[in-house]
Amino acid sequence: MRQDERGDRGAGPERQERQELAGRPEPLTVATAALAREYARDLVRERWGPVLDRAGQEDLIDLQLVVSELVTNAVRHGAGLAGFEAWAVPGGVRLAVHDNSDVVPEAAYGSGALPLEHRGNGYGWPLVIRLAREISVVRRPDGGKTVSVLVPFRGAPRPSGGAGPAR
Amino acid sequence: MPDEREAAVTWSERPHGYLVRVAGDVDAESAPRLRTVLDAAARAARPRTVVDLSRVPFADSAILHVLLGAQQAHRDLGALLVLAGPLQDGVARLLDVTGTAGFFVLAADVASAMEVPAAMTDR
Question: What was the ipTM of the complex prediction?
Answer without folding.
Answer: 0.93
